[in-house]
Design brief:
By secondary structure, the chain is of the alpha+beta class. It has helices spanning 8-18, 20-25, 43-59, 109-120, and strands spanning 4-7, 29-34, 38-41, 66-72, 75-81, 123-129, 132-138. A hairpin with a 2-residue loop joins strand 6 (123-129) and strand 7.
Length: 139
């Protein structure tokens, strides 16, 4: 299996369904807006990229928080409610670095996403505004 034309918007819907139980447990409200978004990418890496972004946004969301996902126009933006980071935002993309050391994760998810982006020439960007963490991937 090599590089294929992947419909990111369809993959977002699939991954949201996959993480629905976890999202429901945390009473997260999802707001999803997608339009057709096609990207040339290895299918497994596409699954990891989209899955890690959504999983991260759910796991690190507040109880009763908001998950916003926008896909289309050459970009995927995944946002979640939360408190400001206590450390350097660039550390989010480093292996084994976590803002909350007690969190139940290894701190690999976003590092893997960044590696995939670097390998394919995509750009990834983190920002925080209005109590929302936002990670955007520009294809």
């Amino acid at each position: 299996m090599g590089i294929e034309n992947i419909q990111i918007d369809e993959l977002v819907e699939k991954k949201l369904e996959h993480f629905k139980e976890l999202s429901d447990l945390k009473k997260i409200k999802a707001n999803v807006k997608t339009s057709p978004l096609s990207v040339m990418l290895h299918p497994m890496l596409a699954e990891i990229l989209v899955g890690n972004l959504i999983s991260n946004a759910i796991k690190h969301n507040l109880e009763g928080g908001l998950l916003q996902i926008k896909a289309g126009a050459g970009q995927l933006v995944v946002e979640n409610s939360g408190k400001p980071l206590s450390g350097n935002p660039e550390d989010l993309f480093r292996r084994f670095k976590k803002d909350d050391q007690s969190a139940d994760s290894l701190g690999l998810g976003l590092a893997i996403v960044k590696e995939i982006c670097n390998s394919y020439g995509f750009r990834i960007q983190y920002s925080f505004y209005d109590n929302m963490h936002s990670i955007a991937v520009f294809f």
